[in-house]
Amino acid sequence: MSCDSRKLAIVIAFVTGFAANAGAQGAGGGSQTSPGGAPPAATQISLSDTATANPTWETSAGYQVLHAPEQTFPFGLNVDGARNWGSFGLVADLGWARRSDDGVTSNAWNFGAGPRWSGSRARRAWPFAQVIVGGLYARSSVDIAGQSVTNSKTRFMVQPGAGVGITAGDGWGIFGQVDYRRVFLKEREDGDSGENEFRVYFGVRFLLD
Description:
By secondary structure, the chain is an alpha+beta fold. It has two domains: about 5-50; about 55-209, Porin. Helix content is about 20%, strand content about 60%. The chain has three helices and nine strands; from the N terminus they run ααββββββββαβ. It has an eight-stranded antiparallel beta barrel. A hairpin with a 2-residue loop joins strand 6 and strand 7 (about 145-170). The protein is elongated and about 60 Å long. The N and C termini lie far apart (about 70 Å).
């Protein structure tokens, strides 16, 4: 065999072997698999991390401040609970706020439910946004000539809001959010068709699988 023939044979053998190796890798999808078709360990860990980064349940409790037209409720408490399906979930919200000024005591109870979107928990801080649809029960009382006069009403409300949560430990974190609340009034009884309110809410959030 001539020198050129030997060189050609070596090149053909090299190309054939390279093609066979590339074909085998292509058939395997470019990744390694364990017996039985199970994904590699690295993939399993990644999927597990993704699952824990998006908890199924969330429960929150904290302090709220409510600002209504010409009055501020400096003290309030609120709780909420959410069921998540990935980034989207359904949240229920219940709270109370109180103010007392010049002998007039006012209390406001908010309640409702709606959708919530949350960013990935893979990072320490994540954003979220929600819209609550429900009601506002307001009650005020004043002492006149030694007698207590009370006025109360319940009105429909829509409350969109957004905030940020921060993971502080295993299964829990802290959060803060700001909400805009539109309360729909009865013009004949209340003198206006609606009012704009704002709420600041912050506290502790528990993340449960």
